[in-house]
Design brief:
The protein is α+β, with helices and mostly antiparallel strands. It has six helices and four strands. The structure holds flavin mononucleotide (FMN).
Amino acid sequence: MDALKAILTRRSIRKFTGEIIKDEDLQLILKAGFAAPSAHNRQPWEFVVLKDKNNIEAFAKEHPYAKMLPQAGCGIIVCGNIDVQKEEGFLVEDCSAAIQNMLIAIHALGLGAVWCGIHPKTKLTKMTKKLLNLPDSIIPVGLIAVGYKNEIKEPKDDFDEKKIHYNKW
Ligand SMILES: Cc1cc2nc3c(=O)[nH]c(=O)nc-3n(C[C@H](O)[C@H](O)[C@H](O)COP(=O)(O)O)c2cc1C
């Protein structure tokens, strides 16, 4: 699939078959995350891969909007290191770019995924830090639940000419 087609046809997938993605696909997805742009090229990201059933279920139990995670079978929690990127805004932007890169890669591989937010929700951040045993300097930004699709979602076209401003507002 070419890049433009992948970007224009990606959708959030929340229904999965339960089959676990292959390790070689996981490596490609992570590689796409590492390829994201970052402020000052600091690359503050760290990736926590959830594969263990107990860890996955514990996370899904505590996150009200990630109940699809056990069925997806694999989670990638994208975190940023505040010692590497001291501007929290940049850290979140960098990690979000990595998340979007991975979502596109996942779709291009024929798999499905959904981005589940963590940052800036204090309760979700605290819960994630505790469950994953994250050091103080590591901020969890978002979770990607990834697996084999069990729903078909048509591409949508959200293009809106009214939101484009040329030269001045
Ligand atoms: C920062 C962020 C947080 C999100 N959090 C959740 C979430 O917790 N659970 C969920 O099911 N979807 C979540 N989503 C997915 C959005 O609901 C989804 O992208 C949106 O409805 C548009 O649908 P599409 O991805 O199919 O284009 C999140 C998306 C973003 C960007």
